[in-house]
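Input.
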Amino acid sequence: MHLIVAEKNISARRIAAILARDQKVTTRKEGGVDTYAFGDTVIVGLKGHVVEVDFEAGYTNWRSEERPPRSLIDAGIVKKPTEKKIVALLQKLAKKADRVVIATDFDAEGELIGKEALELVREVNTGVQILRAKFSAITPQEIGRAFSELAELDFALAAAGESRQVIDLMWGASLTRFISIAAKRGGENILSVGRVQSPTLAMIVDREREIEAFVPEKYWMLTLDTKKGADSLELRHTHGRFTDHAEALAAEARTQDPLTVTEVREGVKNDRAPTPFDTTALLVAAGRIGFSASNAMRIAEDLYMNGFISYPRTDNTVYPPSLNLGEVLDTLKNTVFARDVAWVEMHRRPEPTRGKKSSTDHPPIHPTGAASREQLGDDRWKIYELVVRRFLATLSPDAVWNTMKVNFDAGGEPYTITGGRLKEEGWRRVYLYSEAAEHVIPACTVGERLPILGKDLEEKETAPPPRYTQSRLIQKMEELGLGTKSTRHEVIQKLVSRRYVQGNPLRPTLVGMAVIESLEGHADTITRPDMTRTLESHMQQIKENRRTKDDVVGESREMLHSVFEDLEAHENQIGDEIIGRTVEEKTVGPCPVCGKKLQIRQAHGASQFIGCSGYPECSFNISLPGVQWGKAIRLDKVCERHELNHIRLIRKGARPWDIGCPLCSHIESNTETLRMMPHMTDGLIGRLHARHIYTVPELAHMPAGDLAQKLDVDEKMAGILVSEANEVLDRLRRRSELKKFIRAEIPPRRGRSHAKIAKKLLEAGIDDITSLAAANPQKIAQVGISAEEADGLLAKARALCSERRLREVGLPAVSIKKYVGAGLQGPEDFATLHPAYISAASGIRVETVCRHAEAACSTIGLKNPAKITQKKLEKGREELLAIPGIGEATLEKLYRAGITDAASLAAADPEEAARKSGIPAAKIREYSASLSTGHTPQE
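Output.
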């Protein structure tokens, strides 16, 4: 058997489809893991790393005195399976294999994953041949070439990846454990520290310090307005920034007529086409169109796995000679880019553009398969289109600009204006992400005079340096040698998820600043890029067989021991510094009731709120959305009315949710529900707010006497308000139940959220599942769902209501399901439908149906239906089926009319039986007549 091991299931499936060609690929699932087989070949996908490095047993107790954080530096390292089902299946298949091909991604990470797979295979099959397929795209051409040029695994490349694993574990675990213990943080609130993460955070903190320390300086810009024909022109003084106000005023005073053209310079400027995408350039470009670095990389990897773009982790900016650029263009001809491709082919530059970085592992990122927006969806399409247009731009000619500069004299003061007109659009025709802003100046001649229409001396201030955007930070990390093309975006995402930074541009939180300030004060090696850059260069030397893994890991251990010498000497001081800033970060302002501090708190589970530090004496609190919507962090902006910091919720993979002032938000969100109470007025709401009562639940749970005293109303009115508050609470509960029902039954789509659907239903007077079940289908379809979805939603709502009503009369759950499936809508159906029909439709024995009917009818005060035994029903069934023309389907209809045997058929009123059964009265008469005549009714 030929076994192929891919990095993930999705790539395994694609590789199987490509290699099988015309053969059928059989998909099998073993232990929850898919395999793909054709001929004597089986392909299995891993889940990235299926084993992980970890410390040997005995190091899990963070509080252990025998094994403090520093002991992790020299702790033994072991490998543990993380995906036991995949490991078991891989080894089961490996036992039968006579050849194994590793087909993981070709980089240090992929090579290490391949080496892990090789070791698992060798454990069970020591003599099997194991080869390596190296490819840059999952396309028929690339996969075909890779499997025809199989090579050996690159153990040096894998060793570099393995050394990174061990070093990152050692640094991250020991430092994170030390800092978290010092700051008394645990669980989900640990303070992580890492050899790449910490210097990256330090850069963000340093930039924030620069901004905070920045002292703006005033300067003045002198311009004048003129006109040439119909064109208004703004000329600027050639001095540029005046830092001396008196000098600027003097220049303004000297600016007098005549305004004379002294020089006209015209030229041509070449606007070079962009170079091919490497990983950093792609993430930067994606950032400019609204994607975070981690989201852009996730989408790029998905496009690669599905064969639409080449491998997205590359440092190469030069197309290799082996890459057939013409074939890539041909691939795009059957897409919406056909016209752009045709233009590029007509105007193709002799050689594609090339950047400064060239490597032999992977080509620059380029399209490898045709796709459409409908096929990919909006976000994936945006990244795919970005890659396609960048590729087309690299083959396009440069753009050309006509430039003009006109110099003027105004009373001896020099002024100038510059402009440009796009002469040849070149690459800008196909790459739409760089704006070509033209500024056309009308033709001027030396000696020509223009009028001075106005002068403007504008006072300005110098601006602080800008905060890092995610894309700019990735560029800076690359410049400093921090991390790799594969990990930089992950480092930034970790800083966000740990709540060390927020926003984009990135800004450090108080905790992020506290960690860096403390480390800088006591172990600044961790926060500088030098140490990390050194280790990165040495890991690169492992790839080149110039150093060994053990050598570099040993060097890293020595560095880390040196760091701990400083840390351990100042442990208490470090902890106090961070704890102080942590409390500050969670404090949002004064409590409106007692004046003590309001702080962000998290209760057990997923709930979070803002509570008073004076609890239990002061129980004032403000509810917040659950942590599933994002963890709450404090912003610097303060509400002028309540003096509370604004709140933001951050969640991995989602845009931040700015709540604003928590008390303003609390008041706004609850005022609407207070107004649902019939006797609630704006005046009463104002009195409630003055006494810091903001919500319906607070009213519902308040004794009427206390409320009367607080609102200065009589106890009767207070009792009415408490009663109405409880009624509103019940309505809100039912509305919430309806929203959950909609979320469960209607799939989300772009442009229609569950909240919008629920809002439209509410506007249509439907605010609970019961009113939904009774609604008209056409009315439901108007809330933004299809007619088919409306029918399905109504059917589910009616079934749920039926179940509830049947449950209320005490019927067992197992029977209720069957009754609802048979179409029963409530307990009254037992009084109107014959037990024989209910039994036939539900499959429940008729005696049981009779017993349930009796219980249901007695509960709701209706007359019990007639009883019938199973024996009598079976006998009657035989009598009816013996009548020509009556089959099983007709039998069930007859049961609806109470006709269960020959006698009841003979005694039935044909018109009444027809109404209940849906069988024509004439047919009923024929069936009845056949009892005495034996004639067969006419079909």
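The mean pLDDT is 90.
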